Amino acid sequence: MTIDRRRLITTTGAVALASALGLRTTRQAAAAQKLTGVTYLPPSYADLAYGSQGLVDRINEKAGETVAIDFYDSGRLLSADEQLPALRSGTIDFMFHTTSYITRSLPILGITGLPGVVGDLAKNPDRLKRGSPLFQLIQDELKKNGLTVLSLGGGIMEPEYIWSTESAPIRSLDDVKGKKIRVVSFEATKVMEDLGGAAVRIPSSELYLAMQRGTVDAAVANISTINGRSIQEQVGQVYRMPLTAFAIGVFVQTDRWEAMDQAVRDAFMDGVEWFDTHSAKVANTEYFEEKYWPAFRELGIEEIEPDAAAVERFNEISAGVRDSWVQEVGEDVGRRAIALAHGEDA
User: Fold this and answer.
1) A Pfam family for this UniProt protein (predicted)?
2) Which residues does 264 contact at the CB level (< 8 Å), separation at least 6?
3) How many CA atoms lie within 13 A of 229 on its CB side?
4) CA angle 228, 224, 326 (to 5 degrees)
5) Which residues does 7 contact at the CB level (< 8 Å), separation at least 6?
6) For residue range 194-233, what is the model confidence (pLDDT) as tens digits?
7) Which residue among 130, 249, 265, 338 sits deepest, i.e. has the most Cβ atoms within 10 Å of its Cβ?
8) Spatial separation of the C-alpha atoms in residues 136 and 306, rounded to whole Å
9) What angle do CA 83, 85, 89 make, to 5 degrees?
C-alpha cells in the first residue's frame, strides 16, 4: 500500500487545527454523560444498599458509552438531611432516599409508612411498583413540587415492629403504656403517644447503647436496623405489629431530568427497571426472611404475632394519624391513596 504523503500531512494538520481550536472529534463528542448520585446508606447495610448499588453497577457496565454514574454512598458527599436540598438546587443529578426521612418535606410519601396501611402494602408489593395507580398518584403529587420519583424499589421494606428488652417486655398494645420507645418517623411518634408510650427520637447509630443503658425500653425499627446495629443482642422479644414502614426511592429533579438526552434517560431507566424489580424483593426475601429471622430465632428472641382483634384495635387507634395525613395532603388525594394501598378502587 502506497502512503500519500501530501494527504497524510493535510489530515494531520486538520486534526492539529481542530485540537488547537478546542474542537472535538466525533468519538470524543460522544463521550458518556456523567451523572452524580448519592445515598446516605453505607455498603454495610447490604440489604438496603443492594438495590442502589445494583442500579449504579448495571448502568455503568451496560451503558458506559452513554452515561457514567459518579456515585457517593455513606453520606460521603452529602448527609441524609442535605440530599433533598442538593437535588432541588441541581448540585446532584439523582438521589436514593428512604421515604421516612423526607415525609415532612414531601408529605405524599407518608403513604409508604402510614399505620393501618403498611400491612396491606407489605403483603401486596405490586401496589407500589412503577406504573401502578398508587405509584402514579405519588408521581403526580411529587411533580407539583418539581420532583420525579423514578421508582420506589418495587414496594416497601418489611414493616417496622416493636423490639423490646427482656426487662421491659412488650407483647401487646397495652404493654406500650408507660414505656420509653425509640422512634424515627413522625407517624411512629404519634402512634406510640396514642398508645400511652413516651416516644424518643434516637438515631440508629446510638440505639445499641440506648437500649443497653435503659435510656429506652424498646425500639420501633425495621429488621435491617436491628441486624445492622446488632440490636438483637439487647432485645428479648419482638411484637410483630406492622406499625410503620418505608420504601427506598430514586428521585430526580423533573426539569433537569426531562432536559437530558433521550439516550441518557433510556440508559438510566434500564437500571431503574432493574431496581424496581429487585430492590425491595431481594431485601425482604433473601436477606430478612431467609437470613436474619432464622438467625434471630436461633438466639431465642421471642416473636409475638398480633391476632386479628389486636390488628383491628391498632387500626382504630391509628385512625387519627391517617386523618392528620389526609388533611395534610388533601382530602381527595389522601383518600385515593389509602384506598389504592388497600387494593380498593379509588
Assistant:
1) DctP
2) 33, 35, 66, 67
3) 21
4) 135
5) none
6) 999 999 999 888 999 999 999 999 999 999 999 999 999 9
7) 249
8) 32
9) 115
> d(Cα 54, Cα 269) in Å, to the nearest integer?
13
Given this structure, which CATH class describes domain 32-156+246-288? alpha beta
pLDDT digits (tens, 9 = 90+) for 276-328: 999 999 999 999 999 999 999 999 999 999 999 999 999 999 999 999 999 99
Closest CA to 155 of 183, 105, 118: 118
List own/partner pairs for 103-107 with CB under 8 A and 24 or more apart.
Answer: 103/185, 103/186, 103/187, 104/186, 106/142, 106/145, 106/147, 107/325, 107/328, 107/329
C-alpha angle 158-162-163 in degrees, rounded to nearest 5? 100
Residues in the chain: 346
CATH class of 160-244+306-341: alpha beta
Phi, psi of 345 (to 5 degrees): -70, 130
CATH 3.40.190.170 domain residues, the chain: 32-156+246-288, 160-244+306-341
Grid coordinates given for 63: 451503558
